[in-house]
Design goal:
Layout lengths: L3 H4 L6 H8 L3 E6 L2 E12 L6 E7 L1 H4 L10 E4 L5 E3 L4 E6 L8 E7 L24 E6 L9 E11 L4 E5 L10 E4 L4 E12 L5 E10 L1 H9 L7
Antiparallel strand pairs: 1-2, 1-4, 2-3, 3-7, 4-5, 6-7, 8-9, 8-11, 9-10, 10-13, 11-12, 12-13
Length: 230
Amino acid sequence: MPSEKTKKWPELPWDEVVDRVVKSLYRVYAGQSAGTCFLVSLGLTHDKTHAYAIFATAWHVVKDMVDSTDDIQLVSADKQKTFSSRTDLISFAALGNSLYDTALIIAKTGDPIVSQSDLLPILPTDSMLARGAEIGWLGFPGVVEPEPCFFHGYISGYLRNPPTYLVDGVAINGVSGGPAIDNRAHLIGLVSAYLPNRLDKTTTLPGMTALIPINAIRYYMEHVLGADVL
């Protein structure tokens, strides 16, 4: 059930939720690798000469980029903002081992970054959505790249190791790492995988999407980075 902290945020029509979320949506590229990431924090260096932006994504999206010599780019959904490893310092941090499929991208730049008001509230660390909760998620499916697309479904169940939401809905290549949100525009998780229903080697039926809860990211930001989280 939603906590008292989340109840102060009113429910919104999904089109309004999408309008809010797309402001924090980015596509991350390096060579042949591409995926989705989303902005979760902003800040300044101690001397206030540089700004930094922290993005969340799935670890499998960026694991091959860590040691890549290709230019790493993070491009906003409206294509008005680009971070590039040729001009900005871009680094990666895995949260937990690869099973947790959670990573942060830290971009340090001398250029102005998007407004603090574009940051989205994050579901409290001790909260999990109930079965039947309605959610949405966004990303850049490779079949229509680079168009940001919205998907919609319901929490169907859970996996425990690692903690995972099972969702009645699809995840297409390229959407991995994208933000999952509730109808209050709270970040609730990130897209990790699609679990197809394979009857045999040649027959595949619709399956389920696996979402990693946002809890670990919120905990890291609050307790390791000392960041204020909405």
